[in-house]
Each structure stands twice: as C-alpha cells, then as structure tokens.
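Is copper (II) ion placement plausible here? Inputs below.
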Amino acid sequence: MKMSMGRIGQRLLGFAVAGVALAAGGAAFAELGQPAPWEYKLQEAATPVMENITWFHNFLFWLITLITLFVLALLIIVMVKFNARANPVPSRTTHNTLIEVAWTLIPVLILVAIAVPSFRLLFQQLDVPKADLTVKVTGKQWYWSYAYPDNGKFEFDSLMAQDKQPRLLGVDNEMVVPVNKVIRVQTTGADVIHSFAVPSFGIKIDSIPGRLNETWFKATKVGMYYGQCSELCGKDHAYMPIAVKVVEDQEFASWVESAKKKYAGAPASTFASAAGPAQ
Ligand SMILES: [Cu+2]
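Reply from A.M.:
I modeled the complex. Tokens:
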C-alpha cells in the first residue's frame, strides 16, 4: 500500500496533536505519592532531594535535546553543502585550529556543567543530616517490617492488602512518619536482597542481608506515599509494596502510643536480637 504525501502529512499531524495533548494532560494525570495511568514523567516530588532530582532530570533533558538538534542541523548542512554533486572539484582543506579547539573545549565545559549539580545532588543524598527519627526497615520474602527504636521500641510487619486501593500498593500496616522531619531509614534484608524505594521521596536503597544501609528523607507534604521493592527477590517480589503515611506531629505522637500497644505482642526481631540470638 502506498501512501500519498498528503496522507503521510495528515498522519504526522495526527501524531503531533496526540503528543501535545499527552504532554498537556500529563500534569493532570499526576497524583501525589503514587503512579498514574499514562504517566510518563517522574512522580511529583515530596522531599527536597526529589525536587533536586526532578530539576536535574529536566536540566539534562533540555541539554540533550539542544545537543541532538544541533548535531542534526550540522548533519543536514553537511549533506546539502558538501555532497559530491555540489562539489565537482573537492576542497583539499584538512585542518582548522579554531574549530578543533572549540569542539574539544565546549564538550568539556558541558560535562563540567553537568558534573557540578550532579555531585551536589549526590552529596545531598548521601550526607544524612541529623535525624529526628530513625526507622529500621527490614525486607523479607515477601513483605516489609518496620521498627521504631526511638519511640518505645516496637516493630510490625507490613503486608500487601488485597482489598485496599491503590491496587498492589495498599498495605495492612503503613509506615507512619511525621511531616517536615528528617527521617533516617536504616535497612537490611532478612533473607535475600530487597530494595526499599519510594519514588516521590527520591530514595532507593538496597536491603542486603548482613549489612545495614542508610538513607534519609524529609517529607514536606502530608499524605500517603507508595513505593515497591526494587530488587528481584523471588516469586512475590511484585507483591511487597511500601506505603508511607506522612502525618502532623500530633497525629504521629498518638499513632506511636496506639502502635506501642497494638504491636506489643508482635515478635520484634530487631529488639530481641539485642538480648539474645535472632531467629
Ligand atoms: Cu523484595
């Protein structure tokens, strides 16, 4: 089947309109703390680290776009201007010092412009500020356990809840933290390697047996935030979601009080191991 130029033009116009509509609609699809259908952007940021990740992502996106368009323009110029038909007598030019210095120096400057914000972001992620609260997160086949060593030493399991929304992300017992506080997350694996990841917080850290990894976040908005285990850990890897509830200070204090009672009888391996051998 042959398409006429008019038909091809119509098709291209159709694609362009669909693309613009998708880009314009993207913001409407975004929902704080969880993925949305047809989402193609990063989740909305809920921490200063994620805000910087988003900024860096956009910065690189536009830089790459400009470079690609520039190279495309050069290719087109070369194809039109320097083809054999347009130059029956070929030029014998070989060197141009100015251009050679420029095409060495400009890419170096571009890399430096990328390296500066990149390292700034890395240090922000890796330098854990003085923490207001520590939560120990243990990845297990196939659920998470959260331990609160600062507030009354309690620990509980968090399993995916079949009857909760959002589907595959809702859990029975959420991890609860106060808003605008630095939360230090210490994580380990009880059996195999898992990975604790919450996209809107900009954190993703491996939970490795026999090792305590550390990261941090400071959620600036109250709400529910969802993540998933991000290291293939066995048959139910896809069914061990992470749900973090960010609440006001007062609500957090009352949750701690009720959690202490609710989880008092639960097997607290984190604190039991300090007294005797862990199971
Ligand atoms: Cu896992």
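Short version: Residues 139, 194, 229, 231, 233, 237, 240 surround copper (II) ion (CB under 6 Å).
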